[in-house]
Amino acid sequence: MKKNLLSPVILILFGGLLATGVHAQPALKDAFKDDFLIGTALRDSQLTGENTNEMALIQAQFNAISPDNALKWKPVHPEPGRFNFAPADRYVEFGVKNHMFIVGHTLVWHDQTPSWVFQDDKGNPVDRDTLLARMREHILTVVGRYKGKIGGWDVVNEALNEDGTLRQSPWLKIIGEDYIAKAFEYAHEADPKAQLNYNDFSLENAPKREGAIKLIKKLQAQGVPITGVGLEGHYKMGWPAPAQVEAAIDDFAKLGVKVAITELDVDVLPAATQSQAAEVSMNFALRAELNPYTTGLPDSVQQALAKRYADLFTAFLKQPGVVNRVTFWGVTDADSWLNNWPVRGRTAYPLLFNRDYQPKPAFEAVLKVAQHP
Ligand code: XIL
What we know:
The chain has an eight-stranded parallel β-barrel, surrounded by five helices. By secondary structure, the chain is an alpha/beta fold. 39% of the residues lie in helices and 15% in strands. It has twelve helices and nine strands. It has one domain (25-271, 285-370): Alpha-Beta Barrel (TIM Barrel), CATH 3.20.20. (3S,4R)-3-hydroxy-2-oxopiperidin-4-yl beta-D-xylopyranoside binds next to loops. Residues 68-69, 157, 232, 263, 278, 280, 337 line the site of (3S,4R)-3-hydroxy-2-oxopiperidin-4-yl beta-D-xylopyranoside (XIL).
């Protein structure tokens, strides 16, 4: 009886979809709407609107965006007193227009930060007060400009070494350990409503995770307004184990902070290094054996990637209410930074959409997890 009633309804609905031209492909953002936001990273060139295939995919699938580079110190604040806001403005405007959660990435980092930030006119290191003043001016200007529009900032990026100690960056050397607390305080001053995250890679590994836990506890004890931790999620096929991801999410949940997966991709290419670190400065020479899939991804690898993605999303969903966003680092495989890192000029396949804007088996596998976690 039920079946008889339902079938005409389904037919009408389906017919309606076809008639209105609505694409029947399910959307990640809808599938996970009760769990977390689904984001993607955007390059400046993707925001011109010229690539209509890509634009349609972004608007259909994602409800959160991160800027690939536009808001990093070097592009946005290349010289003292000179800000280049045009690409960041376009990025934020796109998010506002499409009602997306807009991420700011990133305020204080050792990379993609011009050397003038740390130097005086003669090229000598500046003192603590000067660097703190520069940091505050930068944060108040950039965060202030997008107040109420950018919903969450990666305030400090990659401050830890793989062993959990603090990275000897110019920030640490010149200001001292409290540069992290100061960055959060300034960001909070600039936009008290914005979510403020600490973002890093390899936090799934116990030693580095311990370092992050220590850091967050210290910030919390000082009353520093930290709302979340970003696990970058630059993963390999064999690392990290889903249990490591779950353990990291559990441990951060115990501190009362939210967890975001901020830069997700899964590298299927042969490893150029044994290091698990997503250290942007790494660069290895291109050799043919490191680039085996120039004409396409073999089905066996495609299926293995699908399984890997399903396992990862199952881990993200394990503790309801902790992971608040999963952001992919790019839209299609063609956009991925892994085509040029840590080896320039490879053909990478780390995302859910292929170079023809079509969903890969990994896309279907992830959707299935949303239906049956
Ligand atoms: C990468 C960008 O994707 C590249 O375009 C750029 O050349 C280097 O940086 N960790 C981060 C991101 O926090 O900002 C990095 O993004 C990838 C690793």
